[in-house]
Amino acid sequence: MKKIQDTDKKPILLFQPTSVITPILPLQPQEKKIISERERFITQVERINQMAQELEAAILELKAIANTLNTQKRCPLLIKELCKNICQYFAVSVPWVKRKSNKSFILTTRKVDLLQNEREAALLAQQLRQQTKKRLASQRHRKNKNGAKPDIKHFFKKVLVNKS
After folding, report:
1. Rounded CA gap, 138 and 146, in Å?
2. C-alpha dist (Å) from residue 152 to 36, 88, 123, 146, 157
3. Cβ contact 108:93 at 8 Å
4. Is 71 in contact with 85 (CB distance < 8 Å)?
5. Mean pLDDT by 10-residue block, N- to C-terminus, for the chain (164 residues)?
6. Under 8 Å CB-to-CB from 108, ≥6 apart: which residues?
7. Quick check: pTM over 0.70?
8. CB count in 10 Å sphere of residue 52
9. What gap in Å lies between CA 135 and CA 128, rounded to an integer?
10. DSSP string, 101-159
11. How far apart are CA 76 and CA 92, in angstroms?
12. Helices 116-148 and 37-71: crossing angle, nearest 10°?
C-alpha cells in the first residue's frame, strides 16, 4: 500500500482493503438481436415515411408563419410591396415509400398540399353559413306561423289600450 502526500500533508490511501471479497464474474457476450434484412428494410421504410410526415408538417408550419408575417403591418409604407409576400410557393413533394399489392415497394414522392388549410377553412365557413341560414329560416317560419293566426283577444287589447 502506497501513501501519497497531499499538499495539506494528509496521507491518501490508494488501496483500501475490504473485508468481503467478491469474485469478478467473467464477461459474458451480450446476446445479439438477430434482425433479418427484411425487417431492417421494413424499419427503414417506416423511418422514411415518418420523416416525410414530419417534413410535411414543418413545411406547413413554415407557410403558417409566413402568412402571419404577411398579415402583420410592420413594414413602412415605402416598402410595403416588398413585404407583401415574404415567401413564394411552388409545387412541393416529399419522398414516400408505397407498398404495392404484390408486397413490393416503390420509392416515390407525395405532393404536399399547401392549400389544404385554406380549403378546410373555406368549407367550415360555408357549413357555418348554411347552418346559420337554416336556423334563421326556421326562426322566421316560426314567427310567420305564429303571426298567421293572431290572437284576436290580444289584438283587441292592444287596440283598446292605444285608443284610451
Report:
1. 12
2. 89, 68, 47, 13, 9
3. no
4. no
5. 56 59 73 80 96 95 89 63 76 94 93 88 90 83 66 54 50
6. 95, 96, 97, 98
7. no
8. 18
9. 10
10. TTS-EEEEEEE--TTHHHHHHHHHHHHHHHHHHHHHHHHHHHHHHHHHS--HHHHHHHH
11. 32
12. 60
Distance in angstroms (rounded) separating the CA atoms of residues 50 and 78: 45
Length reported for the chain: 164
> Could you tell me the three cell numbers for 155?
289584438
Q: Which three cell numbers stand for residue 49?
A: 415515411
Specify the residue for cell string 409545387.
91
Cell numbers standing for residue 139: 326562426
d(CA 33, CA 4): 48
- For residue 117, give every residue at least 6 positions away whose Cβ sits within 8 Å of its Cβ, in sequence order, or none: 60, 64
- Tell me the one-letter amino acid at 119: R
